[in-house]
Amino acid sequence: EHLHPSYARGHVGELCRLSDLVLFSAAVPGQQGVNHLNEQWPEYWRNLFSLNDFSSFDVLRPVIWDNALIPAWYRQNTVLYVRRGSESESKLMALNRSDWDCKKIFHPDHFAGLVNLASRVKNGLGQCNEDEGVRSSARQLLRSVRNRLSPPPSS
Asked: What is the Cα–Cα distance from 130 to 115, expressed in whole angstroms?
């Protein structure tokens, strides 16, 4: 998420050269954050890891999803990637694979925070002393942001 999209493939390749196991987390579209340049859904990253002969094992998100001690963005975005044919893959294949496997999901706690932020911005518009054109443009921008942040439909 902090790398320009043109560097993503090379960065994933370098991670894959360093280990048979990669615990990876990256922001999804609309997540917001400091210096996010490449917010992508998990299958984007899964495809880049797959190019390096890595399989995804979405075994952590179901376990930590409801743990409020862990920041929501980690509960939402963390996926384990494992080199195909490795001993680790064999062991993980013996476990039940999660039906979550890289699904597009937005954590409710994180979404609630973004909705709260949008609400505060909207309420601030009502106090704006500028002309109606400025308020109208700001409302249009807020609608656009709200639409972008809406969770994707379940598949």
From this structure: 24
- How is residue 26 annotated by DSSP? -
Q: What is the pTM of this model?
A: 0.66
Residue with token string 């409020």: 68
Count Cα atoms within 13 angstroms, Cβ side, for 40. Answer: 20
How many C-beta atoms lie closer than 10 Å to residue 148's C-beta? 10
Conformation bin of residue 30: beta by default, left when phi > 0, alpha when psi is -120 to 50? left
DSSP per-residue string spanning 32-76: --TT------HHHHHHHHHTTTEEEE--SHHHHTT-TTS-HHHHH
**Cβ pair 118, 142 in contact under 8 A:** yes
Q: What is the pLDDT of residues 57-109, one digit of tens each?
A: 888 888 888 898 988 888 888 999 999 999 998 888 887 565 555 555 655 56
> How far apart are alpha carbons 135 and 62 in whole angstroms?
42
